[in-house]
Amino acid sequence: MLSFPGGRPPTPGTVGELGEFGLIRELTSRLTATPAVKLGPGDDAAVVAAPDRRVVASTDVLLEGRHFRRDWSTAYDVGRKAAAQNLADIAAMGAAPTALLLGLVLPADLHATWPVELMDGLRDECDVAGAAVVGGDIVRGETITLAITALGDLRGREAVTRAGARPGDVVAVTGWLGWSAAGYAILQRGFRSPRAFVEAHRRPEPPYHAGPAAVALGATAMTDVSDGLIADLRHIATASKVCIDLRTEAFDVPAQMHDIGQAVGVDPLQWVLTGGEDHAIVATFPPDRKLPARWRVVGEVRHPSAVSRVTVNGASWQDGGGWDHFRGES
Amino acid sequence: MLSFPGGRPPTPGTVGELGEFGLIRELTSRLTATPAVKLGPGDDAAVVAAPDRRVVASTDVLLEGRHFRRDWSTAYDVGRKAAAQNLADIAAMGAAPTALLLGLVLPADLHATWPVELMDGLRDECDVAGAAVVGGDIVRGETITLAITALGDLRGREAVTRAGARPGDVVAVTGWLGWSAAGYAILQRGFRSPRAFVEAHRRPEPPYHAGPAAVALGATAMTDVSDGLIADLRHIATASKVCIDLRTEAFDVPAQMHDIGQAVGVDPLQWVLTGGEDHAIVATFPPDRKLPARWRVVGEVRHPSAVSRVTVNGASWQDGGGWDHFRGES
């Protein structure tokens, strides 16, 4: 079993039966450290190396029913995804992820296997990104809630914000686009395949190394694609006071995504342009910069008009919205 | 009004009407920065100075109904208390608090004044501790939930863990003890006074500077009193593999606390020894150390017996439990 790599048996009983301190013992016993962890879980606070003399920090909250479903994703996958989402924010600043802290709300009648597998997922995704879980807090409540804070180190580089894009820059993206949204569409219709897209929805694979690499390539602005490419580029356009135009022919929509789109009656470009949660990294670069093959140039930065718009082939995308957590699709 | 220091009018409408981005704009517009804030809210992540090359980090989760009540505390007080609780963890490592991140779950029908006042409280408590709110995340959910991560800097000092207490050390405490518990007892019985104790429950005043100061005084182990003195000293006893004995005559129980105890039928020493949430700082020091008057010596560290116990006048305290979030009072 993926989630019990050492052949370790699942924890017996519920969260309530194990108790707060029993559960904390069980969870922390599964963690691994990195050289950056100067003091791990178990004290008032953790101590993490910050060799750059600056620390990059980001917090995200995920609720059951809203951000994940236990019938669609295993606890392990929820852990992988929750960690990935936050670690990608660190990478998108140009920093190397170092640590993760977890605030966890759990119902007392939840089987303890769930948080144990969740922790395995968090740990393994941290491993991929070079980070470690260093601390957290667990309280009892009705709705499973994960509050994750990721930390990172800039290693002497300047942080790349959303505010530095300049007219003439190219827009380039690396990582997956639309895969999670296609997987979500499949699950929503009660199917479980094609597996590659369902897996992409359950467990995104952000290109962590691309963030720091983009700084070396001269990125002028950068973000990860969490709400959808158009929505996240709109943040760059607004912060940089520019317009951005995407070219649809620049995207390489896989044949299988076309097939799924046809089956469910959705233009797959919709997923590519507005689907979030794959945590691709999108950045703007000076036009003369030679980018490695992993980066795909998909548009360009233009002089600002009255509003900082993001257009597709020069026009508004019909449904170019992002997600507003209080209002729903905008 | 305390919570609108600039005479600024309250935000109209509900959280849902304001929307996620409107609310974020409203909340971040109220924040102040410190020189340690290299990049504040609004990007993928914040950037905070960590001159020591290590960062101290701690996360706490607070739920409405479990950790605070809206009929007992204003949003402003909840913010003050939530920040205090986390910033005290940083101080208890011997570090200076630098930054705070906020994960926030809010019902859509909540009036937007609530999170706005909450943010004012968080900001003002950060001010007291020398820190600043640098980022966060807001999502919609049923139960108001605060997930707070505090960061701090050790300024070249060694972190003081719970594990360094040695037989012969003295146990000393600074800050308030039992005031929050007395205030809670008052509120629980439907009263609102004496005001000093109710205020202490609503808005603790951790002695932030005492943490770093204790390092200079040679503290061997340290923690903040969040679950109750005996419970938190038990963490030190366990981590340090020692026993700790407290002397009741060393505590200075205020006359007014005696009066309240008599009125509600509780030995006020119970509040002093087992009441949490005042976030006093307790530390162990070598016996030869001359401590400033703000520190009160209340016990001593003894050689370990079979179990790492905390005793009071050499005996078990009849109700020396702490709080287990899944099991209730232990």
Automatic annotation (TrEMBL), chains A, B:
- Residues the entry annotates as binding Mg(2+) 1: 59-60, 137
Q: Which amino acid positions bind Mg(2+) 3, per UniProt?
A: 44, 89, 224
The UniProt keywords, alphabetically, are:
ATP-binding, Kinase, Magnesium, Metal-binding, Nucleotide-binding, Thiamine biosynthesis, Transferase
**Where is each PurM-like N-terminal domain found?**
42-152
Q: Where does Mg(2+) 5 bind?
A: 227
CDD domains, A to Z:
ThiL (cd02194)
GO biological process entries: thiamine biosynthetic process; thiamine diphosphate biosynthetic process
Pathway annotation: Cofactor biosynthesis; thiamine diphosphate biosynthesis; thiamine diphosphate from thiamine phosphate: step 1/1
Q: Which InterPro entries match?
A: PurM-like_C_dom, PurM-like_C_sf, PurM-like_N, PurM-like_N_sf, ThiL-like
Q: Where does Mg(2+) 2 bind?
A: 60, 89
Name the residues that bind ATP. Answer: 136-137, 162, 226
Protein name, entry field: Thiamine-monophosphate kinase
| Taxonomy of the source species | Bacteria, Bacillati, Actinomycetota, Actinomycetes, Kitasatosporales
